[in-house]
Amino acid sequence: MKLYSKKARESKKRIGFVPTMGYLHEGHLSLIRSARKENDIVVVSIFVNPTQFGPKEDLSRYPRDIRRDKKMCVSAGVDVIFIPSAEEMYPRDYQIYVNLEGNLSNKLCAKSRPGHFRGVATIVTKLFNIISPSISYFGSKDAQQAIIIKRLIADFNMDTIIKIMPIVREKDGLAMSSRNVYLSPKERKDALGISKALKESSMMIKNGNLNSKEIKFHINSLLNKRDSLKIDYVEIVSAETLESIDKIQKNTLIAIACFAGKTRLIDNLWIH
């Protein structure tokens, strides 16, 4: 992979990179299509990264279907599929990780999933070093991840452009996720309350209500009506610092994390 990328860069070819954990869906394909339009070469990585899973999380049962993923990548015009093993990425004597400091390390998902973004920042750094992408594509459903990776690029002076692409949703509004396959019919129906709450929040803002406390109260009340949902957090924060804000303004993130049964789902509304 490193040799391939080196030769491509020496030939002045632009490499578009889409990192994934596999079990691809239309959200991933939207990133791949954007990469295909804007680059000479498209690389997709498929790697279920063990260092971003906690001891009680779903690493062993995370959905996998490499054969299906390969077919989807080929159909979408991907040039290279990079599928390293955990042993290649983290050899037995592996010791160095990328740690986060400040608000990025203790807000939102970082608070409820300690160590998660340490694993994300480490694997993304490794993948960037291996693939040397010109442009890297991430979905905005994982908003905190996108914000952290943008900061990672800036702080480490990395030579890649980050593009954050819109959330892709199912026809009923549920944000696409590989984990949606875990949901029972009842849980999936209740999970629609998340996107509904965000939609109603957007209408409240358009109608002039910029009070974060009132919007959070409304979201919580809607989610609490869904039997199988358990709220992890509902937060309204600056999309730059992740600090809580009292009044909605430009570059605000309304972020929700809920458990539908045992499945943790995230969604957000990004106010630009």
Automatic annotation (TrEMBL):
Gene Ontology biological process terms from the UniProt entry: pantothenate biosynthetic process
Residues annotated to bind (R)-pantoate: 52, 145
Positions with a binding annotation for ATP: 21-28, 139-142, 168, 176-179
GO molecular function list: ATP binding; pantoate-beta-alanine ligase activity
Highest taxon of the lineage: Bacteria
Localization annotation: Cytoplasm
Gene3D superfamilies associated with the record: HUPs (3.40.50.620), Pantoate-beta-alanine ligase, C-terminal domain (3.30.1300.10)
GO cellular component: cytosol
Reaction catalysed by this enzyme: (R)-pantoate + beta-alanine + ATP = (R)-pantothenate + AMP + diphosphate + H(+)
Positions bound to beta-alanine: 52
Pfam families listed in its UniProt record: Pantoate_ligase
InterPro entries found in the cross-reference section: Cyt_trans-like, Pantoate_ligase, Pantoate_ligase_C, Rossmann-like_a/b/a_fold
EC identifiers of the protein: 6.3.2.1
Active site residues per record: 28
Record key words, sorted: ATP-binding, Cytoplasm, Ligase, Nucleotide-binding, Pantothenate biosynthesis
HAMAP family to which the protein is assigned, alphabetical: PanC
Note: The reaction proceeds by a bi uni uni bi ping pong mechanism.
Chain's role: Catalyzes the condensation of pantoate with beta-alanine in an ATP-dependent reaction via a pantoyl-adenylate intermediate.
Family to which this protein belongs: Belongs to the pantothenate synthetase family.
Stated name of the protein: Pantothenate synthetase
Organism: Candidatus Omnitrophus magneticus
